[in-house]
């Protein structure tokens, strides 16, 4: 099942919810808020969420986007679920390293590997 | 005698917290950086730093008041990028922002903007009374 909105593509497969950013830039605060709300709604609806967020299309993101990812991660943990990130370009991965968020998130090279790790 | 210094690209404008205005400025900035032969990695760094400075200006300086603006000035030469962002707030103490990379703060959602600016730029200076930030990137000499 796939549902496409303006900023987020959501796919549920074998109990894993995959969020894929549609836009190249995750910078606009209103969009980031909307993305966060969509993710949190899905997570709240799951008993024990298993979530992959894939960054395949993303070329720029701001600290506000990082903040939303942390909020989403906390919501997943609170429900005893698991969250992985994948397909992060080297320039964006550097942002995670600088902020040490690579220690907070489990990051896989590809979405397939991320999904497999949650199986 | 060495070569004469390259002519600087300069721009100054008022930006409101609207994506179209910010995006238009970012496009101009990217064009100026490319014209001065800054590579993709530097464009990424400078763009991110300006984005974070503007978020701070709009959110913390102007307290999300959509009628207030941030004044942006930049000067770009082949060797150096200087961007100044001034908001209409009363200023703040950058020293009051906790280290977001400290173990106890890693999972706090906010407070990473200044850190990212400092990581990517050569100099980040908050000027008194704290409503103005100057970002400088100096090309590394090979």
Identify the notable features of this structure and list them briefly.
heterodimer; A: 119 residues; alpha/beta; Transcription Regulator spoIIAA; six-stranded mixed sheet; two-stranded parallel sheet; 4 helices; globular; B: 142 residues; alpha+beta; Heat Shock Protein 90; five-stranded antiparallel sheet; 3 helices; 5 strands; 33% helix; 23% strand
Overview of this structure, please?
The complex is a heterodimer of chains A (119) and B (142). Chain A has 119 residues and is of the alpha/beta class. Chain A has four helices and eight strands, in the order E-E-E-E-H-E-E-H-E-H-E-H. Chain A has one domain: Transcription Regulator spoIIAA. Chain A is globular, with a radius of gyration of 13 Å. The N terminus of chain A is likely disordered. Chain B has one domain: Histidine kinase-like ATPase, C-terminal domain (Heat Shock Protein 90, 2-Layer Sandwich), CATH 3.30.565.10. The two termini of chain B are 20 Å apart. The model of chain B has no long low-confidence stretch (mean pLDDT 92). Helix content of chain B is 33%, strand content 23%. The interface between A and B is medium-sized, with 23 and 23 residues.
The coarse overall form of chain B would be: globular
Which sheet architecture does the biggest sheet of chain B show? 5 strands, antiparallel
Mean pLDDT of chain B: 92
Task: Estimate percent helicity of chain A.
Answer: 40-55%
Element-level helix/strand string of chain A = EEEEHEEHEHEH
Radius of gyration of chain B, taken over Cα atoms and rounded to an integer in Å? 16 Å
Name the beta content range of chain A: 25-35%
CATH architecture of chain A: 2-Layer Sandwich
The major beta sheet of chain A can be summarized as:
6 strands, mixed
Q: Care to count the β-strands of chain B?
A: 5
Number of helices of chain B: 3
| CATH fold node name of chain A | Transcription Regulator spoIIAA
Summarize the structure.
The complex is a heterodimer of chains A (119) and B (142). Chain A is α/β, with parallel strands linked by helices and 119 residues long.
């Amino acid at each position: 099942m796939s549902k496409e909105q303006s900023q987020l593509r959501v796919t549920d497969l074998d109990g894993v919810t995959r969020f894929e950013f549609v836009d190249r830039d995750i910078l606009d605060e209103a969009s980031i808020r909307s993305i966060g709300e969509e993710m949190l709604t899905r997570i709240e609806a799951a008993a024990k969420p298993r979530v992959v967020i894939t960054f395949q299309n993303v070329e720029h993101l701001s600290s506000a986007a990082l903040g939303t990812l942390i909020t989403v991660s906390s919501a997943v943990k609170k429900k005893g679920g698991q969250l992985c990130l994948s397909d992060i370009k080297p320039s964006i991965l550097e942002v995670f390293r600088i902020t040490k968020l690579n220690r907070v998130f489990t990051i896989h090279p590809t979405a397939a590997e991320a999904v497999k790790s949650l199986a | 005698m060495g070569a004469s210094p390259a002519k600087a690209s300069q721009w100054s404008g008022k930006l409101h917290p609207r994506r179209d205005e910010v995006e238009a400025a970012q496009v101009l900035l990217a064009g100026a950086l490319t014209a001065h032969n800054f590579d993709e990695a530097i464009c990424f760094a400078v763009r991110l730093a300006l984005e974070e400075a503007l978020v701070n200006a709009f959110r913390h300086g102007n307290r999300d008041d959509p009628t207030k603006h941030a004044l942006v000035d930049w000067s770009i030469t082949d060797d150096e990028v200087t961007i100044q962002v001034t908001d209409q707030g009363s200023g703040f103490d950058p020293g009051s922002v906790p280290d977001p990379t400290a173990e106890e703060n890693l999972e706090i959602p906010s407070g990473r903007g200044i850190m990212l600016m400092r990581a990517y730029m050569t100099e980040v200076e908050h000027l008194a009374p704290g409503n103005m930030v100057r970002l400088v990137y100096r090309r590394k000499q090979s």
